[in-house]
């Protein structure tokens, strides 16, 4: 829906929250009443994900607009609820009683100051006794938040808080697609990649009423998977390049013959492993480049400086040319060995090192050449 200026949309997901949804809506209405004195208007939207109790009835009677969302998932329910909203400012929070919806004014104040995304940090605020399981509080959340901060440079204390506020413009810019719990991670990652202004405020996190919908290991993996998929430069390209350099270095050093480091001798076996490492590195690097191009062209995710620098130098023609040169070099090396073998009367020939390098060059070149066509399919998009 078209956004209305100075209108606040409070969007809450719901799945069988009849014991708390009414209280949450009441808190939200009181916040909107206070903000009304500052010239804001507001709406409360309950995005229901298939409740079988009286949640919808209670919410409707309390004055909320109901949006029924058949597609299951944390992200799916928020996307549907936000799509039905009309506010220029959007506030999201769970309807299970864990978040204080009477504190919305502090979030709106930060948006008014020019921030694009405001997070309610439980870890810099007050986590009530029993509100968060021990492993979630001291292991799961800190690790996932740390990983996201390290990978994307977000510098937040609570990456997976369920209480957030953002502008309509920011929401449209982020273009979120996740349907599960990874929705929270995707929002932060895309906000950072789009250079949106992010801030946090401390909040109170209370013990929920009812049963948690979280599936710890499954949801944690979804967050990690999302972080990896949106960071192919960090997860694939850089490791791939390092593996390639390591593998080719071993192969080149051992091409003339065995090599000693102290009392350790490296020979043909190490050289063979080196070519395998190099081939693995090329495969991972190419997969990373294609993934980076896909996330940028199809998903609209801007890349970092390193990823953009690499993509700016990669073209179909360059990949194809490099591939053909390597294939030609590999076949040439193998041909030299073949000619020498024929010249010796097809007898014994000790040229296994040259053959290994030749085969490695042919395989690597073929990968580059064929990958150029896949690159070409994505490049003009």
UniProtKB/TrEMBL annotation:
Keyword Membrane assigned: yes
Every Low-salt glycan biosynthesis hexosyltransferase Agl6 C-terminal transmembrane region domain range: 290-378
Keywords, in A-Z order: Membrane, Transmembrane, Transmembrane helix
CDD domains tied to this protein: DPM_DPG-synthase_like
Top-level lineage group: Bacteria
Domain Glycosyltransferase 2-like: 9-170
Parts of the chain that traverse the membrane: 228-256, 268-290, 319-343, 355-378
InterPro entries per the UniProt record, alphabetical: Agl6_TM_C, Glyco_trans_2-like, Glycosyltransferase_2, Nucleotide-diphossugar_trans
PANTHER family: RFBJ PROTEIN, UNDECAPRENYL-PHOSPHATE 4-DEOXY-4-FORMAMIDO-L-ARABINOSE TRANSFERASE-RELATED
Descriptive protein name: Uncharacterized protein
Organism of origin: Candidatus Gottesmanbacteria bacterium RIFCSPLOWO2_01_FULL_49_10
């Amino acid at each position: 829906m078209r956004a209305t200026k100075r209108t606040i949309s409070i969007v809450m997901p719901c799945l069988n929250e009849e014991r708390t949804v009414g209280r949450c809506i009441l808190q939200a209405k009181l916040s909107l009443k206070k903000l009304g004195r500052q010239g804001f208007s507001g709406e409360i939207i309950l995005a229901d994900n298939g409740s079988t109790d009286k949640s919808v009835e209670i919410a409707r009677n309390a004055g909320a607009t109901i949006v029924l969302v058949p597609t299951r998932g944390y992200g799916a329910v928020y996307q549907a609820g936000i799509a039905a909203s009309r506010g220029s400012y959007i506030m999201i929070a769970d309807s299970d009683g864990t978040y204080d919806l009477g504190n919305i004014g502090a979030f709106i104040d930060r948006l008014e100051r020019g921030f694009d995304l405001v997070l309610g940090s439980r870890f810099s605020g007050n986590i009530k006794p029993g509100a968060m399981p021990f492993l979630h509080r001291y292991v799961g959340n800190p690790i996932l938040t740390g990983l996201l901060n390290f990978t994307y440079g977000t510098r937040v204390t609570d990456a997976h808080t369920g209480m957030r506020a953002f502008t309509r413009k920011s929401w449209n810019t982020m273009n979120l697609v996740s349907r599960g719990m990874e929705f929270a991670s995707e929002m932060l990652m895309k906000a950072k990649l789009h250079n949106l202004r992010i801030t946090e405020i401390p909040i109170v996190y209370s013990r929920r009423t009812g049963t948690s919908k979280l599936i710890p290991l499954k949801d944690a993996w979804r967050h990690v998977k999302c972080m990896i998929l949106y960071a192919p430069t960090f997860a694939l390209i850089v490791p791939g390049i390092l593996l390639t350099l390591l593998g080719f270095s071993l192969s080149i050093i051992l091409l003339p013959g065995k090599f000693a480091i102290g009392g350790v001798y490296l020979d043909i076996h190490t050289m063979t492993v080196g070519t395998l490492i190099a081939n693995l590195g090329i495969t991972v690097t190419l997969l990373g480049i294609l993934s980076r191009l896909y996330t940028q062209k199809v998903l609209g995710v801007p890349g970092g400086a390193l990823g953009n620098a690499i993509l700016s130098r990669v073209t179909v023609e360059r990949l194809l040319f490099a591939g053909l040169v390597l294939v030609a070099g590999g076949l040439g090396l193998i041909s030299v060995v073949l000619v020498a073998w024929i010249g010796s009367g097809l007898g014994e020939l000790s040229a296994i090192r040259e053959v290994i390098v030749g085969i490695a060059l042919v395989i690597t070149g073929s990968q580059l050449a064929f990958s150029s066509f896949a690159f070409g399919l994505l490049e003009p998009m």
